[in-house]
Amino acid sequence: MNSPETTPAITPEVTTAMEIVTFKLKSDTDPQQWLDAQAAVNEFVMAQPGFYYRSLSCDDTDTWFDIIYWQDMAKAKAAGDAFMESAAGQAICPLIEMESCTLRHMTAITEAMICEGNAEAEAPAA
């Protein structure tokens, strides 16, 4: 059982916002066109203030997960608004079944990360 001395603190200083978008592609979307469009999306998000990280994945039900980490909620929402007006946004939105699309924003409660260059050196021994 955790005592107050051993319970990890959840700090109010954490402001990282996560944007999680789930969706399916339209049945007539060319997979290569979709993948080619991702370079422009990455370029767009990397140019936005407060951008930390983006990943795009697809599960075995053909549901896509676009997860982006931002410095804070205000920057996440501002980037989302700008994306819808951007060339990248206008290129990919017609490829998505908009009825399947869900967008969630949330603030991280706690965070942990190992940087690429230090992953082996910092990982605990098995």
Strand and helix map with partners:
Layout: E1 17-25, H1 31-46, E2 51-58, E3 64-70, H2 73-85, H3 87-92, E4 96-107, H4 119-122
Antiparallel strand pairs: 1-3, 1-4, 2-3
Explain this structure to me?
This protein has a single domain (17-116), classed as Alpha-Beta Plaits (2-Layer Sandwich), CATH 3.30.70. The protein is globular and about 45 Å long. The protein contains four helices and four strands. With 126 residues, the chain is of the alpha+beta class.
Any descriptors?
alpha+beta; globular; four-stranded antiparallel β-sheet; 4 strands; 126 residues; Alpha-Beta Plaits
Question: What is the second-level CATH architecture?
Answer: 2-Layer Sandwich
* Estimated radius of gyration: 18 Å
Tell me the count of domains.
1
Average pLDDT number = 87
Topology-level CATH name: Alpha-Beta Plaits
β-strand percent reads 25-35%
Counting helices, strands and paired strands, the structural category is alpha+beta
Main sheet characteristics: 4 strands, antiparallel
The gross shape turns out to be globular
Helix count equals 4
